[in-house]
């Protein structure tokens, strides 16, 4: 496979075309950002850990019948993925209150919700990815009714699969963010990544954060937490 031009550079990844139009090359960077890149750092080894964790989780989800853009892990920092047109919505699922919902609604952190809550955010850095209603997405053409229904169904399936997975390694899945894209047949599949950058993981019993909150809140040992997630996943076996 020949890597050609860079198509896009985001906060945590770079995307390249290859000599095969059905294959893109996705490089995980060592950058960590929070609060829409108002806080930034470089951490050697972070790209490699997220590539390992995200590849592992996409493979696990595929075994559970959940399709994603992931093709295969190529080397420490890179994986190949299918080309998709990204839906400009971030889908957040919450099992427990934490983060922006607590700030926005004045809620206490750590309240278990009686059922999963799904929220949509408009993917637009200049606006700080605002929370939007489904009607906004429909009226402004970001997604169709069918797209929203499909994304919600897949998000709930991902939640069931990830709760089962993280329960088995003594971690509570608090919340996570997904992104979706449409493949060449117009089918909605999971895209982006599923990693400690995009999920909240609390260790059962201690409540210790094992995710990007350690960076957001200056809790220290960010990479140690990512390594711990990888250790538990790899020891669990597929
Ligand atoms: P928040 O809305 O900040 O409480 O985030 C809810 C969940 O979605 C957390 O697991 C975050 O890590 C994740 N999340 C929200 N926005 C983003 C983003 N722009 N990039 C990566 N993860 C995000």
TrEMBL record:
GO terms for molecular function: ATP binding; phosphoribosylaminoimidazolesuccinocarboxamide synthase activity. It comes from the Bacteria. It is an enzyme of class 6 (ligase). Keywords: ATP-binding, Ligase, Nucleotide-binding, Purine biosynthesis. The keyword ATP-binding applies. InterPro entries: SAICAR_synt/ADE2_N, SAICAR_synt_PurC, SAICAR_synth, SAICAR_synthetase, SAICAR_synthetase_CS. It catalyses: 5-amino-1-(5-phospho-D-ribosyl)imidazole-4-carboxylate + L-aspartate + ATP = (2S)-2-[5-amino-1-(5-phospho-beta-D-ribosyl)imidazole-4-carboxamido]succinate + ADP + phosphate + 2 H(+). Pathway: Purine metabolism; IMP biosynthesis via de novo pathway; 5-amino-1-(5-phospho-D-ribosyl)imidazole-4-carboxamide from 5-amino-1-(5-phospho-D-ribosyl)imidazole-4-carboxylate: step 1/2. Residues 7-232 form the SAICAR synthetase/ADE2 N-terminal domain. The keyword Nucleotidyltransferase does not apply. Its EC number is 6.3.2.6. GO terms for biological process: 'de novo' IMP biosynthetic process; cobalamin biosynthetic process. Belongs to the SAICAR synthetase family. This is Phosphoribosylaminoimidazole-succinocarboxamide synthase.
